[in-house]
Amino acid sequence: MSGLTRNSSNPPPYFYDLKPEQQKNWMKTTRRMERNEQLRAEYPPFQSPSNFTILHLHHYSSIETVEELIMKARATHIYTIDTESQIINKVAKGALVQIQFIHSIQESTLVLIEMFYLPNQDSLLFKKINELCSTIFRDENTKITWGPFDNEFKNFHLYGLFERGTGTINLQVSRIP
Asked: What domain of life (predicted)?
């Protein structure tokens, strides 16, 4: 269903009474609306996966949960990854890593690794989380990030869980003209 009521080829009569800057803004907005209509006609609406699971990893996670994730990671080859940092005493520290396992169009698993609440690095649980991260970040997997990998993970190196590898795609979000 189209919601467009403007046409850049046929502006309304009041358009010519607008100041030049207002005309420019009207045209720019109208072109964006036309582009959105074109995209709406060209692509189907986004459908969220009907079957997705969200899991938090921290020091209370069970080893069984992490082992199940390792098995899923071995069968998964496409991931989307995003990170969040927190400023503490004017220093950015890696706080959260979000990893989405793309199993299929209908199914995905979202893992939230809570960096401030990781288990002790000598524990079996930490070693299993490290194994999970190593499996995800293998070279043959495709990893889609919201920016350059090194920039995404610059505040996370101290945790020793994330290695760059190859197969990383930087998703650059751009504005529609």
From this structure: Eukaryota
Query: What's the number of domains the chain is made of?
Result: 2
88 and 37 inside one domain: no
* Domain co-membership, 122 together with 90: yes
Strand 142-145 relative to strand 168-170, pairing: parallel
pTM of the entire structure? 0.68
Helix/strand/coil percentages in the chain, nearest 5: 35, 25, 40
- Regarding whether 127 and 78 lie in a shared domain, the answer is yes
Per residue in 104-161, pLDDT (tens digit) is 878 899 999 999 999 999 999 999 999 999 999 998 888 888 878 888 888 988 888 8
Nearest to 128 by CA among 43, 79, 41, 57: 57
